[in-house]
Amino acid sequence: MEKQFKVFVYKEGEPPVFHDGPCKSIYSMEGNFIYKLDVDTKFQTKDPQKAHVFYLPFSVAKMVRFVYSRDSRDFSPIRRTVVDYINLVAQKYPYWNRSHGADHFMLACHDWGPEASFSLPYLEKNSIRALCNANTSERFNPVKDVSIPEINLITDKLTGLMGGPSASRRQILAFFAGGVHGPIRPVLLEHWEDKDEDIKVHKYLPRGVNYYDMMRNSKYCICPSGYEVASPRIVEALYNGCVPVLISKSYVAPFSDVLQWKSFSVTVSVDDIPKLKEILMNISTRQYIRMQRRVLQVRRHFEFNSPPKRYDVFHMILHSVWLRRLNVRITDDHGVVAN
């Protein structure tokens, strides 16, 4: 991929909605990916004839801020923005119409990323959608779409966000602390909040207790979905050497076509939340140590680096897009064939 893959970034559009995005928030992948790809000289090509894929450089998070009318629940301004932009590039270049969008991709970490993609049928059905909200019940298709991690960056560096002791020095069985939203977290809190010394579940952390210290002293970090399926706790767990416990519905884990999540995480159904301690206690020490070591091995694929480094999250996203582009063949008569 590194020697061949080329991306053409459409230059049309003005910040803040285009060629811009948040870099220090829960939606940080939108801005950081746009900026890194805009200045990238290895993967980006200025010649569209040499491109394998075409990137639509809009930020859904910025659309929500600058285009959407707050609290209206009216998505039409966002959809019109997407439609207008794709019509613009389709009129200026032949590539969208040539492939019906199949060799184009968008990236969104905002919860409304899928909603923005519903603006045009071809964008949803044909284009590659790199989404944090990788929810199959909301028409996420893992065959052509890319699940990307939700990373809550506070600064542009990972200083202080990574670390933790070895598996044998972690004294807490499992840990969760977070706000109550969505259908899953109230169930978790009902069964486990302040009810077990081994399962540390809190709505609010006690005064003086550090969130990351709790993760670093825990064997397992509970990562329940909120209103949407993605959770930044998954990446936070990996950064701190804690085995993630995924509790969600219809969620496709990031980069799951490459990474074997069963080897470094635990999946618990919502119905099995009352059995959470039993499930974790039944994992042998030997098996846990293997999973924890694999956490340390795979977390480089979730690291944000500036500039990007091989195998980090920027490269993993592009690799996932590349894999899906290989499934599409553009015919001479401008038809699209899925291999």
TrEMBL record:
InterPro entries: Exostosin, Exostosin_GT47. It holds the Pfam family Exostosin_GT47. It is found in: Golgi apparatus membrane. It comes from the Eukaryota. Residues 2-282 form the Exostosin GT47 domain. The keyword Transmembrane applies. Keywords: Glycosyltransferase, Golgi apparatus, Signal-anchor, Transferase, Transmembrane. One of its GO terms (molecular function) is glycosyltransferase activity. Its main location: Golgi. GO terms for cellular component: Golgi membrane. It is a single-pass type II membrane protein. Belongs to the glycosyltransferase 47 family. This is Exostosin GT47 domain-containing protein. The lineage of its organism: Eukaryota, Viridiplantae, Streptophyta, Embryophyta, Tracheophyta.
